[in-house]
Structures are given as C-alpha cells and as structure tokens.
Amino acid sequence: MRIHVTYTGGTIGMVESANGLVPGADLEGWLYGLLRGGDDLGPGDVTFTQLDPLIDSSNATPDSWQTMVDDLRAHRDDADAFVVLHGTDTMSYSSAAVSYALTGFGKPIVFTGSQHPLGRIESDAAANVTGALNAALSGRAEGVNLFFGHHLFAGNRVTKVSSWAFEGFYSPNTGPVAQSGTPWHWNTIEREGCGWADPRPYGRHDVPVIDMAPGITAERLAAMLEPRPEAVLLRAFGVGNVPSDEPGLTDVIADAIRDGVPVIVASQCQQGEVMLGRYETGDAIARAGAVGTSDMTLEAAYAKIVFLLSQGLGGDELAEWMGRSIAGELTQEG
Ligand code: ASN
Questions:
Q1: Are 29 and 50 in contact (CB under 8 A)?
Q2: Staple partner for 109: which of 82, 137, 156, 278, CB 3.0–4.6 Å?
Q3: Whole-number mean pLDDT of the chain?
Q4: CATH for 3-186 (3.40.50.1170, 3.90.1680.10, 3.40.50.11030, 3.30.360.10)
Q5: What is the per-residue pLDDT across 37-53, written as a single tens digit (0 to 9) for each?
Q6: Could you check whether 3-186 and 209-321 share the same CATH topology?
Q7: H-helix or E-strand containing 3?
Q8: Which parts of the sequence bind substrate (predicted)?
Q9: pTM assigned to the model
C-alpha cells in the first residue's frame, strides 16, 4: 500500500514561541522516524507534501480547503490512500469541505491532528497518526474520514467537542464509523450521496453564522443582515425555533429571503434534527422559505453552503440542495 500525506499545519507540528504555539517542528522527519521498522508500512511507501505556509487551522479559509483538494487530486494516482494532517480547531470544516469536492475520488482520505505537539512526552500525535494510517490501510474506510482519539468518523458528520480531551471529536447524529482496538470495531453508517461531477474550486463567500439568544431584537438581527450576505446560517433553538413573539423578528428573516438571501436554519443542539414548523416558533420562517439543516453538523452545513455558492448556486436552488445529500452529510428521508 502507498500512502500520501498532506501536512497543512496545526498543533501536531507546533513549537513554543514568545507568542504561543506556532508551526515549526520537523514533522516530516518525525513521521519517517515513526514509520521506520514498521512491518506493514515503511518510509518508502509514503509520499509527503508540506503546504506553504503551514497554518493554525483557525486561519483556514475556503482557499485553504481548495489547496488541500488540489494536493489530493495531484497525488490521486501516486497512492492508495491519503492522510491529511490538520489543526483540530477547524478540521471538521475542512473534512466536510473536501468530502463535497472529491465525491468521485475513489480512494480513502483520513484527516487527523493532535491536542499536544509531537514533541511532548504525553502527546497524542503518534497515536492519532498511526490510527489514521491504520484506517487508511484497513481497506474498509471509504470517502473522507477523520480519526481522533480511538475513533474514526465520517468527515462530514463530525464535530470538535473538546479543546483538551484526547477524544476531542464526536459524531452526534451517527456515532463513529469505527473504534480502534484489537481488533477494530466497525459500524455501518449511511454515507450515500448523489456526488458532484467536476466541481468548481472553492472561493470566499459572505455567509454569516448568526446565533439566536433570548432577548435578541429585530433591530439587532436586521443590522447583522445588512449589507445583504450571499446566504445566512442561522443557529436557532431546538428543532429550529426562533423568538417569534419578538416584534418584527420573523419579518426580518422573511425580508432577507424575499431579497434573495437563502436562510439556512441550524440548531444550537449538537444532536438532533432541524424540523422547521414543528412548533409555532419555527413556523413563520418556514412559511417564508427558510430551510433547515436536517441532521447536518454546523461544520458540514457551513462548508456545504460555501460549496454550493462556489458552484454558482444561490436563492431557491441553493436552499433546495441543502436538503439533498451530496456526500452522505445528512440522513435522507425515505
Ligand atoms: N489551534 C490549533 C489548530 O487548530 C489546535 C490544534 O491543532 N489542536 O491548528
């Protein structure tokens, strides 16, 4: 088996500086050291790209997602499986974004990173990288995945749940694809999607993510929606409820939709499903044309909106695609 590794940055390869952790460790040397003496994979089986610049993933943008997609595509024929080393902060945005852009890739891709830099004695770097390599080599992983702690997750069903725990990620609506151990335990989760042929590259788009909070006023929400964004991801309560008794608030949302802004409603609950109109508090915005994110994670929903905008979609067409699975990012009805 041949593996290609794309190193994008993140704590895994960071060192201390006067201003906190920054990229700077010899990650490539460390990785080849880790592989030396291995029975199933040796240094000669692995190719390595280091992106320039290496970043803290809090600095990632849709342009960074495209750089990853480009590197993976460029090495498509050089390897049987792919590992992307990435910072944890926005890793689940990137893994979701890559899943939409590479639906026809046909080879497994596994993202991983770590909570501690590789140089620390208690670092989780080696465990996560060897876990990701094992998943990539397993012959059972498909599509885009994320390995962290002792679990493998679908890359567009996963969210960062802890800034410190070694089990830092979870898939609240599907559970993990596999748990590492002797042997690994694999689960069957729905990963069907219609795919996307020849996607256009990711670009930057104006998509605010706005949280509802008790007491938010119509004036405040209206101000946040001016000038008009290309789409908005509204994080509402529960199954997609907003403060409908607040004078004018649902009108602000309806006005934005009338102006052609797709309003996509997510939930502040990590686990669950957006069902607009289940309550009277979500009904008015549903009737105005807002659409829910179903059981997508926030990261999968946000990356999907940016993907669809990058394909030139907008308005009702974009809203309609939010309910259709492209790469297994949501549970489809029926
Ligand atoms: N700030 C880091 C990053 O996302 C966090 C990490 O990798 N653990 O790049």
A1: no
A2: 82
A3: 96
A4: 3.40.50.1170
A5: 788 898 999 999 999 99
A6: yes
A7: strand 3-9
A8: 57, 88-89
A9: 0.97
The two tokens of residue 42 are 């040796």
Q: Is 310 left (phi over 0), alpha (psi -120 to 50) or beta?
A: alpha
Whether residue 155 has its Cβ less than 6 Å from ligand 1:
no
Domain locations in the chain as residue ranges: 3-186, 209-321
- CATH code of 209-321, in short, is 3.40.50.40
Which two three-digit tokens encode residue 227? Answer: 């000038």
Return the ligand 1 atom nearest residue 10 CA: 9
Active site residue 6: no
Out of 15, 57, 146, mutate this one to test ligand 1's pocket (max ligand atoms within 8 Å of CB): namely 57
Please give the distance, rounded to the nearest whole angstrom, from the Cα atom of residue 64 to the centre of ligand 1.
15
Please report, in range form, the residues annotated as the binding site for substrate. 57, 88-89
38-40-45-47 Cα dihedral, nearest 10 degrees: -80
Q: From CA 51, how far away is CA 29, in angstroms rounded?
A: 15
Note if 90 is an active site residue. Answer: no
